[in-house]
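thought: fold this chain, then report.
action: predict
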Amino acid sequence: MLKVQEIRELIKVIDQSSIEEFTFEQEGSKIKIKKKSGMEAGVVHSVPQPVAVTVPQPVVEQQPVNQVATESQPVAQQATQTNETNLHKITSPMVGTFYHSSSPDAEPYVKVGSKVSTDSIVCIVEAMKLFNEIEAEVNGEIVEVLVKNGQLVEYGQPLFLVKPE
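observation:
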């Protein structure tokens, strides 16, 4: 069974290539990725029965590397934007419901100030009754939780800001 990060990488590779359709089968699981003209990719995952998930393309934000303060952008605001560019964003790999812990009465996986490593589980995103553990993918410290427990999240939506170590 592929991990969420491996599926993300597949989606990126297919998106950047001229391949229109891709199918991967392993141990009774099947992933099918198709490009659509509306800039979307579809993922079909079957564990005894097929389950379909439509994954929209992430929007790439472009920001200038060096910004100069102007009248419309105070120096304090410029400093905040510079600090945010040094942070790693942990994003949702799918559309689903965000949960900060494994059960309602359990402690959250991470809080602001928590230290994480690349394989640390930071949350769960539930999609179609499947609970997907999301890993930090970076060593660092959680500086901000961007979503609330039980909130619906979109593909590519930032969930946490991490100060890398």
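thought: worth noting. Residues 38-42, 44-49, 65-82 have pLDDT under 50 and may be disordered.
final: tokens above.
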